[in-house]
Structure to design on (229 residues):
């Protein structure tokens, strides 16, 4: 399935309303990883949903120094820039010019395994920015781009180009591209059942009975559990 096919699919459009908790539960049910520990909203709207463009950084090569990256001009609207700086907290790989330009280009947001700076400019631009934290010191002459569009890490989660990145106030989850439709469909189905349970409980049915009626515990059971693993 091409990127255009994914972006135009009904299930993908419906999934834009899912929370990270709903997606995380679906990943668990399918025995998949994806919850990026320690990555949190730093600036701009605490909502993000888009396909990943990955960038991996490395310490500066003193004999053949590179740059911190001029990739932003190549990215299509809605793309999420995923930057892996190895979780470094001592220097940044994203600042105010990039936030303002990314907002102008209507990118989906930026997620960093590391820190960012100039967060006030991301707030002013309404640009979603997630990271391990914030710190003002530049990455110039400290780190350089090592690779574009290669697998990277967000905390303990592997991210490949084209994977889905979902963010809200609770953090970031990553959905593998090859399992995207399965995961999102599972999350949407679970939401429907949970809404029926809630409605039944609000109408007076004991919560335990409502959960049994709609087979909630079976719905939440992981694939591994169903197989007796």
């Amino acid at each position: 399935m091409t990127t255009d096919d994914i972006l135009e699919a009904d299930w993908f459009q419906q999934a834009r309303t899912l929370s990270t908790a709903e997606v995380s539960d679906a990943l668990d049910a399918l025995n998949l990883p994806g919850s990026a520990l320690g990555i949190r909203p730093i600036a701009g709207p605490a909502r993000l949903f888009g396909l990943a463009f990955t960038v991996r950084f490395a310490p500066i090569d003193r004999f053949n120094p590179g740059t911190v990256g001029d990739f932003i001009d190549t990215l299509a609207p809605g793309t999420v820039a995923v930057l892996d700086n190895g979780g470094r907290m001592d220097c940044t790989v994203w600042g105010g010019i990039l936030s303002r330009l990314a907002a102008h280009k209507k990118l989906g947001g930026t997620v960093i395994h590391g820190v960012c700076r100039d967060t006030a400019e991301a707030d002013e631009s309404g640009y979603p920015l997630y990271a391990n934290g914030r710190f003002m010191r530049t990455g110039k002459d400290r780190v350089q781009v090592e690779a574009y569009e290669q697998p990277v890490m967000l905390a303990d989660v592997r991210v490949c180009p084209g994977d889905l990145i979902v963010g809200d106030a609770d953090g970031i989850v990553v959905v593998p591209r090859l399992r995207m439709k399965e995961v999102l469909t599972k999350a949407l189905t679970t939401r429907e059942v949970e809404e029926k349970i809630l409605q039944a409980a609000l109408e007076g049915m004991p919560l335990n009975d409502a959960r049994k009626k709609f087979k909630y515990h079976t719905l939440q059971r992981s694939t591994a559990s169903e197989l007796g693993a």
Notes: The first strand starts at residue 40 and ends at 43. The CA atoms of residues 16 and 137 lie 35 Å apart. Residues 223-229 have pLDDT under 50 and may be disordered.
